[in-house]
Design goal:
Strand content: under 5%
Helix content: 40-55%
Shape: globular
Distance between the termini: 45 Å
Order of helices and strands: HHHHH
Number of strands: 0
Largest sheet: none
Number of helices: 5
Radius of gyration: 18 Å
């Protein structure tokens, strides 16, 4: 079951681009839980729409994931995270995505 939960988590390449833009661990108090696990937990919850309390333990304590999500939403960290992830996936300007069926999009149908 754990493999099914992990199939949509951050790839190593995405994590490598993302890690430098995340806040450093706090110097006081306990160490923060792993940023990558927390981000994967937030993405899982967003993708599935499950309540925070039903977040699988694979992603750590639900309250930790929730608190980090709220803190990062307030300070703009999520905007940085999403912009960083999007920057590596932008298609060429003007190029239609594969399978685009918008009106006016050109495509070829073989043998018609």
């Amino acid at each position: 079951m754990e493999d099914r939960l992990k199939r949509d988590d951050l790839t190593d390449d995405e994590w490598g681009r993302l890690a430098p833009s995340l806040p450093a661990h706090a110097r006081r108090g306990n160490r923060w839980a792993d940023h990558r696990t927390i981000i994967d937990g937030v993405f899982f919850r967003t993708r599935t729409g499950c309540p925070w309390r039903k977040l699988p333990e694979t992603y750590g304590n639900w309250k930790t994931v929730y608190n980090r999500h709220r803190r990062w939403s307030a300070d703009g960290t999520w905007e940085t995270i999403l912009d960083t992830l999007r920057s590596g996936e932008d298609p060429a300007p003007g190029a239609a995505p594969p399978g685009d069926i918008r009106p006016g999009a050109t495509f070829e149908v073989p043998n018609w």
